[in-house]
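Researcher: I'd like a candidate sequence for this fold, 63 residues long. If you have to choose between options at a position, lean toward the conservative one.
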């Protein structure tokens, strides 16, 4: 009897979900526009790559 209640709950929980399914639907950014995605990726990864160089430059210019 307990197993049926759990099964009934999980199937109803899945049915009530309102999320879209499919590739690219479960990420927090859109992959529809490839140029916008490219720009976001360049800014995101570029800032992480440039940060150590900016810190070193800042430290070398300090008096």
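Model: Candidate sequence:
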């Amino acid at each position: 009897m307990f197993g049926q209640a759990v099964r009934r709950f999980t199937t109803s929980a899945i049915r009530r979900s309102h999320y879209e399914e499919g590739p690219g639907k479960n990420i927090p950014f859109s992959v529809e526009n490839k140029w916008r995605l490219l720009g976001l990726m360049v800014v995101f990864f570029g800032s992480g790559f440039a940060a150590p160089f900016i810190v070193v430059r800042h430290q070398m210019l300090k008096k």
